Every structure is written in C-alpha cells, then in structure tokens.
User: Fold this.
Amino acid sequence: QVQLVESGGGLVQAGGSLRLSCAASGLTFSTYGMGWFRQAPGKVREFVTAISWSGGTLNYAVDVKGRFTISRDNAKNTVFLQMNSLKPEDTAVYYCNANWLLRDYWGQGTQVTVSS
Assistant:
C-alpha cells in the first residue's frame, strides 16, 4: 500500500520560512517523479513544484520561483519543500504527489498558514 505522509506545516508570519517533508512508503521511490501542489480555500488545487526521479530536473510555478526549493533524498524515500519569504497568499493545504507512468498518488496534505 502506497503512503505519502506530509509534515512540517504550521503557522508562520509573512517573511518567514517553513520546511515541508513528505515520507513515502510502499513504492520504489527512486523511480517516481515527486511534486508539491497546494489548495487554498475556495480555489482549485494548483501546481507548486516538481522534481524528477533523479533530482536532475526541477520545475516551479512562477509565483514561488526563487522562494521555494524542492529536493529529495532517495535513500530516505523523502521529498522536501523549503519555503522562504512566505507570503499570506501562500496559505493553503500543501499536498505531496508521486507519479510514474500511469501511477499517481497523493498525500493527505499539511496546512500552511502565513499571517500578515
């Protein structure tokens, strides 16, 4: 059974930082592309960032580029999201995603709240 478990969310003031983690189990982690998505209240889930299986290819949404950094540790089956210079508009539930060919898995999400 595949499980993705996010952690590290919380309440932070604008300008602050948080580091999210997503621990994966039940899959061959090193073959999966990993990503982070977020969903704010009343809005659709949106792409934040993604990293290829090797870590060699990174993609970021325009509004987080330069502030957020995705990384992965294949030895620990974990993907990270370092979020700096947080803004109130970054407030959302952040979801971890694992994808490979037609397989697509999601975590339960972790709440990030940025106060102004």
